[in-house]
């Protein structure tokens, strides 16, 4: 029996139990049967969770790009690997076959080597969502260089701190990037960033927007001429299983960003296995994940997971609102997309618009819908299910993190019965536990606690680049011997998990633990509300009280505010209980969000507390101007 694919609920439990009882055998089999190795491992796993030391597939030798590309050539050489859909719908889509991908990655890998990049060197990739981004990432992996993709929306100072932290030797960027109706001056941002970086020797520039840019003599080179001169074939570097594959920065709760380090073999096995099962991928499917490759979702589920399975993966340069709110659905229709994976924030934004935008297009090709990045509220879940999935495509609400490398808790489509707002069950190989404040494991169902993982899985990050101590302290100290996710979760009567949000977002009101996510859920269901964020603020009697920042839909705009506040509170009371009543409500036009769409709650907490002294670093906000507006509008 192969463990690579789960075919039924019964089989899921069988595989799951096998992975609990004999994790080594379970992963050994999956790794053995589904990948190409130069040399197999001596030992499946070795770990010390107290010390945050984990190794998988010890002493195995492999190259991930041989598995993503070369091994598909015989059978799938003419199949589309990457389907590029440009920002402008008038520009033609590009179908890059596996053969073409092989050629382009080999040439790019040779360019990198010609420019002096060697195994172990760090390369910062700051590119828009164009094929060269995928090709640059794979070319690094081909020669064993460690890619550090920085989302091409980060500011110069954010780029500089990331380049410096990992000591990048090269930056790959573009003259500019298209994003909706805007053109972003990427090269200008890199020029500014590199004023503060000493380690970068070369900058390779892709031509995309034809923007006039400065080229610094001796440092900057156009990529295209180098590619034209490059040799066609490239011998992939033989990598050890635990050689670093990439660094990806994620924001810490405080201080500087954390460069999460992922290594080669474990990440490969895990991203491939999870992709195959969570999206029930079949040979002729057209899979689309709308994330950016600058985030872990793009790494694992635009590039590595799909390509490892020989899939066709859509690479979309644009945004959901350009040229209109039907853009996502137009692309689904045009390319007959079968799996569609996006974030709740996008779903909510689109749900605010007329659903005629969805109905205009034929979405009958869709089989599976996915959600990732934050808890999906009930209203958004139903909108997604009703209008996009037409109640026939299961929604996989996938819980995971940059640190986990791949999906950890998720329904398997057509197998696990879904339940709105629940990520449901752990994937085989994943052992979640809920912990109480006294560091005890909470047994049984219908319980809430801090979500930890008690056994290593192949895709987990191995360290924080240059700071193993921080890695250990952040993830392995709160609950010694276990990986602490930073999230709270509840386990319902059948053992399904619902992620309630970051543990630091829990507010204790009159001694009751209240997750902010379910309260927001309830508020968002009010017909006049578009989005909300709840934080705690100090209260004389209750200890903490709740403060709600609420964005209204157009339908709520002209209404009597006092009445609306009353209505919203009644709504919350009836959904959660009177304890969840908000003491203060402020209507706002936007919420401070990071570029990945997460609300930056620490700022809202400060405003709610009336402490304007130090907002900390707001440079990573998408809309920093909103902070001032909210502050001014405070009651
Ligand atoms: O709080 C959880 C939330 O996003 C966090 C991880 O963020 P990041 O590292 O940026 O990775 C996002 C993409 C994997 C988690 O700790 N989160 C992610 N997915 C879900 C979620 N919360 C609830 N439900 C989810 N499906």
From TrEMBL:
Pfam families: ACAS_N (PF16177), AMP-binding (PF00501), AMP-binding_C (PF13193). Gene3D superfamilies: 3.30.300.30, N-terminal domain of ligase-like. One of its GO terms (biological process) is acetyl-CoA biosynthetic process from acetate. One of its GO terms (molecular function) is AMP binding. It is an enzyme of class 6 (ligase). Residues 70-463 form the AMP-dependent synthetase/ligase domain. Keywords: Acetylation, ATP-binding, Ligase, Nucleotide-binding. Signal peptide: none annotated. Residues 12-68 form the Acetyl-coenzyme A synthetase N-terminal domain. The keyword Nucleotide-binding applies. SUPFAM superfamilies: Acetyl-CoA synthetase-like. Residues 519-598 form the AMP-binding enzyme C-terminal domain. Its EC number is 6.2.1.1. Belongs to the ATP-dependent AMP-binding enzyme family. This is Acetate--CoA ligase. The lineage of its organism: Bacteria, Pseudomonadati, Bacteroidota, Flavobacteriia, Flavobacteriales.
